[in-house]
Write a structure and sequence with these properties.
nine-stranded antiparallel beta sheet; homodimer; 3 domains; four-stranded parallel beta sheet; 17 strands; alpha+beta; 372 residues
């Protein structure tokens, strides 16, 4: 028998936890999911420790029950993480969380490892407004430094006059002001790093968001090879710079033929869901392999692949399966406006075949999706 | 939402149940597994009704909790099945079980649908011995009509004199005497049939058994196309003849360039485990789709694939994952001599690549396997 970690504690029990659990079981790994929500989708694939984030008895019980701790969302309360890190290895490390949960530190880190970012400025008090304008220019996006996701906690700023009111609208929380990037495409790289420092990088993905929520991912992105190679090299720099163990996603813009990093998700990511069917090893399996101290798996594809999110509503499963090359991934969540409740994965032998399936899948998703 | 069945009751909670459950969750299906063994591997992926086969309270509770009943092993006690069939649809139907749980009726059925079988004779009393010898010849295999698996309940007979002692050794149970087939290869076809009668047939598989237990499956089998096509047509005849709903496997011999059917497994089958990684849709997913009344998925492959069984022992997981194109499927069972505890799936782009990986995987398995 292996001496590697076999009992994996996962902080968060949403759909990412569920897909991690599905990948863990064939590897002989047992998962315990820590999540305060009783109806956590991950409860179907492991034990569910249903308790508050500040319940030290439950956290101690959780730590005792596992060999290693990981997470499926980056907004784990710092005190809970500290409590656990004192008891069991946390993978990826606390550094991956610290450098990505704050948008200013994240951008500074990206710049420090040679990954290009747009001009940005921190906004902590009214005195910072002028400097922010001078650095970033009048056209930008104002975002809270922490706790933002799916377009929440953001305001677009289109002129110098709009900056102060936008900041007011965000409750004068500590913010980052970022220069607007007139991008041609949104892309991401999903990549994993093992405990021994080896890395596995997936092909570049092209993403389409609708009202701040990911709607579609297609892999490989149709960009020049040199650009895709550069993007994947950036992801490796991020993995190594963080000393990351596990999967992460680096989201970037393509503007005028160059890459500008937008943000890091220090975990398995929605833009990597296509890997479940489209890659030799899924992002979820590679995350679990890394966390358990196992070698990473092949990230290559046998043909083009795509993913369409189902948000706020579900079609009949048979409608999904009627689409050529489609598979269904449903999370078992009650549909609610703006809530991701499943996705459609598509695999094909040619790009034309994929495009035909995409048209069908997008039409189906648009019919049922309810954004908030 | 779909009006199809979403709560699936599975009789048996072994590794086949576990893999059915893993396939069911992404489809939005919930499984309840009925199995008297507390440590059933399927308990990780669904609710486990742990009760005896004759516990009518538990069976009634199980029937109430599900929309449809299926099974992962064919030796479900007839009375339990009858009890459940009176309450909920059983898929595949009772006919699939009745015609395959008895080796004589099975062979008669195969012959009746035009699938070639070797000469055989039923053996119920001492008077049948002479007729059996006349029909089958002196070189044959004697098997109990029911309850045999993995080579258990069988005796090879090499001369007329050996028949009576072989029957004595099998406790004079009702038997089938089958002519010995000097086969070149053992092959199988895994195939599924949906509720609407449509079928999905996987590529022909070549199998290698060691002491009656499957050791290796390779797909596609290296036989002439016409033979593979004939084998797949036989599987369709079996599916239609049974009115089967779900996955089954038809095991055959190739002898002198022709096919001779050996037996039907009316369920997902070990020789189809490679489909988890090697086919667009796994045998487990297609079984669950069929049982839930959903359309079947694509059975095609992107490259050659194989499976090596781990029996009675496990290597370190990292040793499996170090093999090119390998993935691990571990069942969470305590290793015991002769017990299937996991398998290695291999995918490759070329047959040469597969053969290299096979050599590594077979060497690893032979090192740890303990047959009984």
């Amino acid at each position: 028998m292996s001496s590697d970690a076999t009992r994996i504690g996962v902080l968060g029990g949403g759909q990412l936890g569920q897909m991690l659990g599905l990948a863990a079981i064939p590897l002989g790994l047992e998962c315990v999911f820590y999540d305060p929500a009783p109806a956590s989708p991950a409860r179907m694939v492991g034990r569910h420790e249903c308790a508050a984030w500040d319940d030290h008895d439950a956290l101690a019980r959780f730590a005792d029950a596992v060999d290693v701790v990981t997470f499926e969302f980056e907004n784990v309360p710092a005190a809970s993480l500290e409590f656990l890190a004192a008891r069991k290895p946390v993978r990826p490390g606390v550094r991956s969380l610290e450098l990505t949960c704050d948008r200013v530190r994240e951008k500074e880190f990206l710049r420090s490892v040679g990954v290009p970012v747009q001009p940005f400025a921190a906004l902590a008090s009214a005195q910072d407004l002028d400097l922010a304008l001078a650095t970033v220019g009048p056209h930008g996006v104002l975002k809270t430094r922490t706790l933002g996701y799916d377009g929440k906690g953001q305001r677009v700023v289109k002129s110098a006059e709009e900056l102060a009111p936008a900041w007011d609208a965000l409750g004068r929380a500590p913010c980052i002001s970022e220069a607007f990037v007139p991008f041609d495409r949104e892309v991401s790289v999903v990549a994993a790093r093992a405990l021994d420092g080896s890395t596995a990088v997936y092909p570049l993905v092209e993403n389409l968001h609708t009202r701040g929520i990911l709607f579609r991912s297609v892999a490989p992105a149709r960009v020049p090879d040199a650009l895709a190679d550069a993007a994947r090299a950036h992801a490796r720099r991020v993995l190594d710079g963080l000393g990351h163990v596990g999967t992460l996603a680096l989201e970037m813009f393509v503007a005028d033929g160059t890459l500008i990093a937008n943000e890091i998700a220090p975990r398995v990511h929605n833009s990597g869901h296509w890997t479940i069917r489209g890659a030799r090893t899924s992002q979820f399996e590679n995350h679990m392999r890394a966390v358990a101290g196992l070698p990473l798996g092949d990230t290559s594809m046998d043909g083009p692949a795509a993913m369409i999110n189902l948000i706020g509503g579900l079609p009949a499963t048979r409608e999904i399966l009627a689409i050529e090359g489609a598979s269904a991934q449903l999370y078992g969540k009650e549909p609610r406006d703006g809530r991701k409740v499943g996705h459609i994965n598509l695999v094909a032998r040619t790009r034309d075949e994929l495009d035909r399936a995409l048209a069908d899948a997008e039409a189906l998703a648009r019919r049922v999706n309810r954004l908030s």
